[in-house]
Amino acid sequence: MKIYDCVPGLEFDESVDFAISPCWFQDATHSVPPWTPMFGWFWINFCRHGMQYGAELLSLPTVKGWDWRFKDGAGYLALLIVKDPNERKAREERFRVAIKPFIEDFGGMWQGFVGEMVGRYEKLKALDLDEATNIQLLNNFEETINTCRRMWEIHMYMMYGVYTAFVLFEQMTKQLLGIDDTSPQFHKLTSGFDNKSFQVDKGLFDLAKKAQAMGLKDVFLSTSASNMRNALKPSQKGQEFLKVFDDFMEKEAGWRMERMAEINVPTWLEDPAPALNVIKMGLEKGIDYNLDEARKKLEAERIAAEKEVLEKIAPEQKSWFKMILKLAQNSAWFSEEHNHYLDLYTHAMIRRSALGLGKRFVKAGTIDNPEDIFFIIPDEVRQAGINPDMFNLRPLINRRKADWQGWCERGSAPMFMKEGFSIEEAMKGLVESLDPIALKVVVGTMPVARPGLKADLFGVCGSPGVIEGKVKVVWSESELSKIEKGDILVAPTTSPSWTPVFSLLGGVIVDRGASLSHAAIVGREFGIPVVMNTFEGTKILKDGMTVRLDANMGAIYILNK
Amino acid sequence: MDLKEIYWLDELSKEHNDIVGKKCANLGELVKLGLRVPYGFALSVKAYETFMEQTGLKEKVVQIVEKETKAGLDVDKDIDKMIEMSANIREAIEGYDMPPDLARQIGSYYTELQRKVGIADVPCAVRSSGAVSMPGQMETYLNVKGESEIIKHVQKVWGSAFTTRAIVFRIQNNMPISWAPIGVAVIMMIEARSAGVILTVLPTIGDLDRAIVEGNFGLGESVVSGEITPDSFVVHKHEMNIESRSVAAKTKMVVYSDAGTTVEEVPLEFRTAPCVDDKEILEIVRVAKDVEKHFGNPQDMEWAVDKRFGFPENIFWVQARGAKYTKKDARKDEEYVIDLMLQLFRR
Q1: What is the pLDDT of residues B301-312, one digit of tens each?
Q2: How far is CA A487 from the centre of its chain?
Q3: Architecture of domain A451-558
Q4: How does pLDDT run across A312-332, given as a tens digit for each residue?
Q5: Domain boundaries, position B220
Q6: Does the CB of B327 have a partner CB in chain A at under 8 Å?
């Protein structure tokens, strides 16, 4: 039987793709470990679409978004750079008009999009997957595909617009104040904003307090998170608590997964163990962390920093500087909040809809396991959508699964480069694209080694502060439970579902990151020091080490070598 | 950089700040922008060093200072000692003959200056030009004419680094007392028929399409200080037409006197006449627009019309800096922010 491409038309093929770009970078943040075929299909098609849609709607003068390819379970990207000066000029004219809504009413725009997306999610969720007909299930899946495409359109349109403003703010602070996005004062200016992601975290903290007040602390401490439901059920208090907890999962926190860019792990709604574990950790390690107070403190610091900075700005420059400051502050909270309403929620919807079909396929004897559906792509789902009992998708699934296991074992290439092309040239191309997302999320600022400091490791400041603590190297969410209060988290990067743990942390060190990546934004909101772009943190630092983290200088000292 | 003892203003730029002082370096920057600034030259700190070394004054000043400070010096109590020290040092610096080579150099620059200006014994302002502003170093001598007078006044400016105030300042700031190199600017005096300012923006409403020219007879001080109501002309920067004129009744003007400046009555027959004619106004706007374009932001500039020269050689510039103004409304800010964003994509 012929096996088709996972992402038809967009599989990496060096015989043609090097003509588009001599270098294709792997999106290591999202596609390591390798994606399942179905998720790869969604990401490659629609993230690609969304970036080109966003860049076109805004008419970014220098870049038309990114092109994406799929290879061995990973995503590879290349920037679509506008080379013709006349075309750039024409795009500039359109940009003038297109960017206006971002300046005039960013909050209103975003609320509109949130409303649109939540409306779509509610409609998708309204279908009872167990009771639905095959046709209804297939329609639900088609609507989910449309929802994902729409999500990426909003995502990238908003992100391009708001990050352009952020890059401008960074430029202006450099020119007018002599500080850049690695300076503590810069971070103070962009911290202290509430957002939906934090409200969810706060909800979990409140639940921990509630459990304590209801006298359930002992049950939590003596039970593993996976067995918590059973342990709580027998008592009336326990049932009361579960009711509040389930309601919170259904309405607020349940539509997220540990890995933001995948669909093959359960949502918190399906398996609330990670959420219960956060509550357990809160009870175990003490919930003296008060998010509201911390937020207030950051807000006060921000207002003080704003005042200090505005005094240095010439009177005639104040009003437009304030405008740019406001726009940059939007990027900070948008960066976190969009994860909740866009990526996490949509991916949970894909999982929900696909699993609905998966279960039906198992019932009809088409496949063996509902989750096997993640190994086929929408075209193949459609083959069996209306009459699953007439088809056998196992041969397809088996071969795809074998491929996927191979990708997982072998790993994927960090980039594809045309012969004779150098990494320096490739990085130069990224910078020259002036693509705000490439600059602020992918590349970041390179660390400067300061030999005078005699530090063991250098990175750049993602959130200011100085702290000492024990190193805990964490590669995945399952290892988060080893975190004790005051520890220094060392990780390749952090994910939105790790956010609650930040309240326990003394500081964070990540291999890669820029001023708008998760670790930096959340670190700033929790007021803990973060050093990013150390590249080798997870290699050099080991559990048991004690380090001093001087984020202001981007320096890390191992105290017990 | 190989240091010279004397520079023409048009050889200077910001990088020369430390060797000829801010004032001269700034004028050099204006020349670089193509502006006509009063002609002149600058003696660098190296000239001062040469003077002090070749005359043996370097050591002599040290001796004077040591003599007075041997028993310790209390800034608050020993004021008489410092006054005496100041007088002794200044007398010494002013009393020595300029070393022949340096005197020859100053002479040849002054000769060339007379040729450039086209006026024999052209009167000059001789003033200090410090790299950092320091109290007591503000000596300015106006209307200095002729080679020997120029040389004499250069020495006076050098001596001015040893006024009592300057000495006290250096003691209080832990700076050496006996070594105080400063630059000296020798710049032709403008014989200002009229002078004033131009802003390439209407400052109260932030209108970037228009410029405003304000002026009075005499020197620009009366306009800059805001003490009189000047003539005022609004010019549309793109159309280059004078949209409004307000000619004030100008009763007073500032003119040079031997001891500095003084306020004089404007002759009756001139009081209600415009201080600049239309073609001068448009020339002032044209030049200012170029400077605005160069720096990318609206400019606040000072101009003077010299009565000795014909148009357009009569228009001189003495200052250019970013203008302070307020924006008209949120829309203007928005357009400006968008302009800035577009700049990002042009790096």
Answers
A1: 999 999 999 999
A2: 23
A3: 3-Layer(bba) Sandwich (3.50)
A4: 887 778 888 999 999 999 988
A5: 192-344
A6: yes
